[in-house]
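2024-03-11 09:14:02 DEBUG pipeline.ingest accepted 1 chain
2024-03-11 09:14:02 DEBUG pipeline.ingest length=306
2024-03-11 09:14:03 DEBUG pipeline.predict start
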Amino acid sequence: MTKAGSKGGNLRDKLDGHELDLSLSDLNEVPVKELAALPKATILDLSCNKLTALPSDFCGLTHLVKLDLSKNKLRQLPADFGRLVNLQHLDLLNNRLVTLPVSFAQLKSLKWLDLKDNPLDPVLAKVAGDCLDEKQCKQCANKVLQHMKAVQVDQERERQRRLEIDREAEKKWEAKQRAKEAQERELRKREKAEEKERRRKEYDALKAAKREQEKKPKKEANQAPKSKSGSRPRKPAPRKHTRSWAVLRLLLPLLLCVAGGLVACRVTELQQQPLCTSVNTIYDSALRGLRSHDILRWVLQTDSQQ
């Protein structure tokens, strides 16, 4: 074993073999993360250095066989601590560990383990037991490995269960989405069908209205010849002044008689008779009335009231 001093030179220059023993003063000069530069180290003693954590690069020392981390202040080990697959001897005495990383189950070569004087979880503490001699430390390594394997299986089972739950939830969500999309497609299909039916009805209504308009001239054309052939002709609309003409037709014979009497009374010798004298007087009065258009005005007023 080569011991690195507190001063001088690079860490590689201080390494003569594959075994390294560092004291507290060495760690003040050389950070722990620089240990990753020693991938082929097989034995490493970092005890009594007040370490509170190990960097993740530390787990790159995959050739380690023996590791002493006792009497530090480690609260946890790196999550990928299981990468140290060649580790056989691990001393974690007097730290502040409560649990171990699940990857600890991958340390299949571990033969010796000391977890005394750590505030371990009660279940883990019961599994680890004491490490007062070689036999107990070997039993501790074996039992803790079995326990961590069981924990790893349980976590894997739980992970699978949660994954299955997530898959089921995703399937349900996808099924719900498919049902929603199918419902939307059905709704759109129904709306299209309704719109098509509405347009068809409108088209049929317009077509029927057009046929009705085309039938009307035909009906009028068919009705016109019937009236000529046998049906009674319609009575012509009453002409204006019909009543006036009827009155004139009734008065015409009377007027002719009166006119004949007037001619006899005014031309013949009968004009000296008393009757003719009265007739002549009436004639003269009527003549004056006609001249003032009294009769014509009365006739026109009567026609306008009709």
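2024-03-11 09:14:41 DEBUG pipeline.report The chain is about 55% helix and 5% strand.
2024-03-11 09:14:41 DEBUG pipeline.predict end
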